Automatic annotation (TrEMBL):
Domain of life: Archaea
Coiled coil: none
InterPro entries membership: DUF354
Protein name: DUF354 domain-containing protein
PANTHER family on file: DUF354 DOMAIN-CONTAINING PROTEIN, DUF354 DOMAIN-CONTAINING PROTEIN-RELATED
Length: 344
C-alpha cells in the first residue's frame, strides 16, 4: 500500500505562483495530498485561478510597517488554526514569512526557497526556523548565517529560481495580437516598475525611476508597462505610445516577443535573461546576487544612470546580443527530492 504525503505549500507573492505551479501539478499527479494557501496580494489569486490551482485564501498584505506586522501576526494565527490537526508531513514556501513560523511551532519539517539576501527583516524572522534552505550558490552563505541560518541546512544550486518558470513553457508568438496592442513603432520595449510596497525597498509608490526613461524612449519604440498596483498605472496613464497592461498576462511570451526589457524589479529581469531577451536592470536598491549571476553571464546590463540606460536601450533594440549559453542545475528535481526526503 502506497501512503501519500500531506504537503502544505504557502504562496505569498505573485511570482511564487509560477514558481510552484509545476511542483503542485506534479505532486497532485503523484497522488500526494496538498494544502495550498495564498494571501491576498497583487495578482496572486487571479494567477492561481488562471493555472487552475485549488487554494485557500488566508490573510493579506500590509503596506506600512504597522500594517505588515499586524497582518502577518493575524496570518500566523489563521494559518495555525488551519494547519493544526492536519498532520502535515512537510511544509514548503518561497520567502513566506508565516509558513516557517507556523511549521516550527507545530513541529512540521519545512523547506524554504530563498533568493533575496537583502530582505533582512524577512530572513531574520524565517531562516533560523527552517530545516532546509535551497538557495542560489551565488548568494553568500555568510550573509544567510548572519540572519540565523544553520549552515548545515543550506542547499546551494547553480542558477536562480526563475528557471522554474519555464519547465513547460509554450511560446505564444501571437501574444501582441491576442492582447490587441496598437503598436506604432517597429520595436517594442517591456517595462516593469519597482516593487515599491516591499519591506526591503524604501520608495514612493506614486513615483517610478522609469518615468524619465519612458519620456525619451516612447519616441523610438512602443512602450508596454506592466504595473504592480493601481498607483503605478496612474504614473504612466495617457502617454503617447505607452500601453499599460492589465495582469494577468502571459509574461513569458510577452518577454520573448519584445525587443528589450527594462525592469526596476527583479523577477522579470531574470526571466528575460533566461529567455535571451536583452534586459536592463535599473533596480533602485543594492544589486542582488541573483541579478549578478546573469550580469556575470553577459545576459543582463545594470545601471541606475538615466542617460546610460537610454543609450544602452537604443543600442539593444538595434543590435541585440547573440545567444549566450550558461550552465544551471535541475532546480525542479532538487526541490522534489528534498520534499520527499523531509516528508519520510
Amino acid at each position: 500500500m502506497v501512503i501519500s504525503l500531506k504537503i502544505w505549500i504557502d504562496i505569498s507573492n505573485a511570482p511564487h505562483v509560477r514558481f510552484f505551479k509545476d511542483i503542485i501539478k506534479y505532486l497532485e499527479a503523484e497522488g500526494e495530498d496538498l494544502i495550498v494557501t495564498a494571501r491576498k496580494f497583487g495578482d496572486i489569486h487571479k494567477l492561481m485561478e488562471s493555472y487552475d490551482i485549488d487554494f485557500i485564501s488566508v490573510g493579506k498584505h500590509g503596506v506600512s510597517l504597522y500594517d505588515k506586522l499586524n497582518e502577518s501576526t493575524n496570518r500566523v494565527a489563521q494559518l495555525t488554526d488551519l494547519i493544526n490537526g492536519e498532520k502535515i508531513d512537510v511544509a514548503v514556501s518561497k520567502h513566506s514569512i508565516e509558513l516557517p513560523r507556523v511549521a516550527f511551532g507545530l513541529g512540521i519539517p519545512s523547506l524554504f526557497i530563498l533568493d533575496n539576501e537583502h530582505a533582512l527583516a524577512a530572513n531574520k524572522l524565517t531562516l533560523p526556523l527552517c530545516d532546509r534552505i535551497i538557495t542560489p550558490e551565488i548568494i553568500s552563505v555568510w550573509n544567510l548565517m548572519k540572519c540565523g541560518a544553520d549552515p548545515n541546512s543550506i542547499i546551494p544550486y547553480k542558477g536562480t529560481s526563475e528557471l522554474m518558470h519555464f519547465n513547460n513553457f509554450n511560446y505564444n508568438e501571437n501574444i501582441f495580437a491576442d492582447l490587441n496592442l496598437e503598436l506604432n513603432h517597429p520595436k517594442t520595449i517591456l517595462m516593469r516598475p519597482e516593487p515599491s510596497l516591499a519591506s526591503y525597498l524604501d520608495t514612493d509608490c506614486r513615483q517610478s525611476v522609469l518615468s524619465p526613461i519612458v519620456d525619451v524612449l516612447k519616441d523610438y519604440a512602443n512602450i508596454l508597462v506592466l504595473p504592480r498596483f493601481r498607483e503605478q498605472s496612474e504614473i504612466f496613464e495617457d502617454i503617447e505610445n505607452v500601453t499599460i497592461l492589465k495582469p494577468p498576462v502571459d509574461t513569458s511570451s510577452l518577454i520573448k516577443k519584445c525587443d528589450l526589457v527594462i525592469g526596476a524589479g527583479g523577477t522579470m529581469n531574470r526571466e528575460s535573461a533566461i529567455l535571451q531577451t536583452p534586459v536592463i536592470s535599473c533596480y533602485p536598491g543594492d544589486t542582488l546576487s541573483v541579478d549578478q549571476f546573469y550580469i556575470n553571464q553577459g545576459l543582463m546590463y545594470r545601471s541606475n544612470d538615466t542617460d546610460d540606460i537610454i543609450q544602452k536601450a537604443l543600442n539593444f533594440i538595434v543590435n541585440p546580443h547573440q545567444e549566450i549559453n550558461f550552465e544551471s542545475d535541475d532546480l525542479f528535481n532538487l526541490i522534489l527530492d528534498n520534499i520527499y526526503d523531509l516528508g519520510k
